[in-house]
Amino acid sequence: MRRVRVLLAARDPGGAAQMRELVPALRADPRASVTVAASGAAFDILAAANHAPVRFALPGGATHVPSGGDPAPLLEAARALLARLVPDVLVVSISSLGVGLDEALLAGAAGRPTFALQDYPGDANAIDGAFAGLYFVRDEAAARLTRVRFGVATLPVGSLRHAAYAGIDVLALRGRTRAALGAGDRPVIGFFGQPPEIPGHEAAFRDLVAALARRPPAPLCVLREHPKALDLRDAHLAALAAGGVPARDATGPGAVELWLTACDLVTTCFSHCAMDYAFLNAVSPEPLGAALFLLTTPEARAFVRESTGLEAPDGVELGLGRVAATAADVVRLLDHLLTAEARQAYHAASRKLPRGADLARIVDTVLGAAA
Prior knowledge:
The protein has helices at 13-27, 40-48, 72-85, 101-107, 140-150, 160-163, 170-181, 201-213, 233-242, 256-262, 273-283, 298-308, 327-337, 340-350, 359-369; strands at residues 4-10, 32-38, 54-55, 64-65, 89-93, 99-100, 114-117, 134-137, 154-156, 188-192, 220-224, 247-249, 265-268, 290-294, 322-324. By secondary structure, the chain is of the alpha/beta class. It has a seven-stranded parallel β-sheet, with helices on both faces. A six-stranded parallel β-sheet has the order 12-11-10-13-14-15, with helices on both faces. Helix 9 links the parallel strand 11 and strand 12 (247-249). Helix 11 packs across helix 14.
C-alpha cells in the first residue's frame, strides 16, 4: 500500500509550536510519509525539534508578503515546492500580518485535501479566499467563532502546543529560573513583545516602563522580544535602564516556558504567550501569577477586534488576564495583579482550560481524507 504523502508547513512561532507536536504522531503512523516545510522563526523551532524541515524562502530571501503586497512571487514559489514534493494532503499553520508559506500552499492546493492547525481562537488567513477545508481548533468556543468569521469547517481537538505541559515540573522550573535571574523575593514582570506593526505596541511598552519605574523598589523585568522584532531589543533595554528598572534580556531561541514560569505577572499587548502562561498555571499545583494585556491606545484595541473577532484578547473572558486600556490602568492593575488574591483567582480560572489534545483524531482525519 502506498503511503499518504503529507506536507506540513509553518512560518511563525505559534504555528510551529502546534506543528511540533503533530509531526511525531504522523511520522509514527505507517500510513504516512511526512515532509515538513518552514520559513522564518518556524524553521528554527522545527529544526531544533529534529523535524528536519525544508526551508522555504523567496529568491531574495523574503519569507512573507506584507498586507496589501503582491503575492505572485510567493504563489510561484509555493507551486514549485508542491511540484517538487507532490504531496497528497496539506496541513498548515495559521499566521497573520501578511501572507506567507501557509497561505500560498492553500492557494496552490489544486484540489488536494487541506487542513489548518489554529493557534489563536477564531484565526484564519487566506489568499483570495483560499481557506483550508477543515480547521483543527482548541474548543467549541473557538469553533463557533471561526465559523462565524470565515464560514469554514472546524473540529475541536484541544490545544496541541499545551498538551505536553502535563509533563513539566512547573514549580521546579520556576525555582531554577528565578535563582538564575537572582530574583530573590522581588516580583518578576515579563514583557513578551510582538511585531512593531501592531498599532500601539510601543506606546504600551512605554506605559509599562513608566508604571514599573514608579514602584519602590522596581520589580525585575524580563524582556522577551518577538523573533520578528529583534531590532527593538536595544531600545527597550535602554528605556528600562533609563527608568531605573532592573531588566534581564530573555530574547533568543530558547523555550519561552523557561521565562514564563519565573514570572509573577506576564504582560503583552495580546501575544499568545499569555495563554502559554495560563496553561502552565493549569498544571502547576500552586499559583504562579497573572496576566496583563497592554492595550493602552484606541488603535491597539481596534486592532485586536479586527484581527481576532474578539473584544478582548484570548482568555480575558475566562478570567485569564485583565486589560489595561489607559496608562493609569497599568499602574492600578499592576498593584492588583501582584496580590495573592489575584494570583489565586487566575490559578482557579486556569484549571478550567481543556486538558490534552486529540492527536489520534487529527492523524486519522488527515490520512482518511487522502484515502
